[in-house]
Amino acid sequence: MSDGTPADLFFDAAIGLLQRVRDEEAEAITAAGALLADTVAAGGRLFAFGAGHSSLAAQDVVYRAGGLALMNLLAVPGVVGVDVTPATLGSALERVDGLAGAVLDTSPVRAGDTLVIISLSGRNALPVEMALGARARGLKVIGVTSVAYAAETSSRHASGTFLKDHCDIVLDSKIAVGDAELTLDTIPAPFAPASTVVTTALLQAVMATTAATLADRGIEPPLLRSGNVDGGHEWNGRVMTQYGDRIFYRR
């Protein structure tokens, strides 16, 4: 590790990744924003799914001040975060065949909707089957993943494929295999993961693109405001009333 404090080096690494994503994924971000805007304009619903720490980025775009009111979390029990006990159970569930299909069958998703699937490695059965099952049901799929894993690891799905192989649009987070940006001679393992920072920024860039795309088409984007600003609750109440049939986190 070169000169600089570990904090400085982590910030430098994260900023470098954000710059790469901004420059190299610009076309995919634009396409993803257009797809979400198309879905909203056509009366479709929007869903986001991630397992483990990838769920943090999914949760970040749901019921969020400044965000799209129509983003719904597609939750899989036991893998939404690290609150399940033991936390290792969540990792094990990601490898269970058939779980994605059971969740999709009991969820409100339908043809014409769009599902954003976040999985850093994209190699486990759950995200692969989620993408396969969603597309089979007539949904569009946006995948957020590190494409490097497909080149440097093996799939854990029976098909031998990765999440990136079953998406309409792929957003590559550029995260290196192992998700650790720093090394020190005094520490035996690499450390300091940046995937949450980058993936969250990627998705917020897509959300911003979606809002602007809708506005360009003469459609007011269904945005939420902070409940901590005057008039925020009233604003959100109107939005949720108008789009109540497409918002599932209130039910």
TrEMBL record:
Stretches assigned to the SIS domain: 36-221
Gene3D superfamilies to which the protein is assigned, alphabetical: Glucose-6-phosphate isomerase like protein, domain 1
Stretch forming the signal peptide: none
InterPro entries, alphabetized: RpiR-like_SIS (IPR035472), SIS_dom (IPR001347), SIS_dom_sf (IPR046348), SIS_GmhA/DiaA_subfam (IPR050099), UPF0309 (IPR022951)
Superkingdom of origin organism: Bacteria
A Pfam entry, by short name: SIS_2
SUPFAM superfamilies registered for this protein in UniProt: SIS domain
HAMAP family to which the protein is assigned, alphabetical: UPF0309
Family membership: Belongs to the UPF0309 family.
Name the record gives this protein: UPF0309 protein ACFP3J_19955
Organism in which the protein naturally occurs: Streptomyces nogalater
Taxonomic classification: Bacteria, Bacillati, Actinomycetota, Actinomycetes, Kitasatosporales
